[in-house]
Amino acid sequence: MSAKKVLIALPNKMLEEIDALATTEHRTRSDLIREALRRYLANANLINRAAIVPPVSNSDYMNGGTYGG
């Protein structure tokens, strides 16, 4: 996987918290931020998929109704 460097500005307090957690978990700052972004993107993808797929009620499913209404 190729990687690109990205420059971001973070509040001092946030950077201190990131560095403290990275030290506690014996990880690099970059690794911790990458994981946070992966989790954010995964969560956003789940939310987007939930908005696209209509819910199916139990009664529709159990009674052989059509999917999504």
Rg calc? 20 Å
Helix content: 55-70%
The DSSP helix count reads 3
The total number of structural domains is 1
Secondary-structure-based class equals mainly alpha
Gross geometry: elongated
Average pLDDT for all residues = 84
Plain-language structure description:
- With 69 residues, this protein is an all-alpha fold.
- It has one domain (12-62).
- The chain contains 3 helices and no strands.
- It starts with 11 loop residues before the first helix and ends in a 7-residue tail after the last helix.
- The mean pLDDT is 84.
Structure in a nutshell:
The chain is mainly alpha-helical and 69 residues long. It has one domain (12-62).
Main attributes?
69 residues, mainly alpha, 3 helices
List the topology elements.
Elements: H1 12-24, H2 29-52, H3 58-62
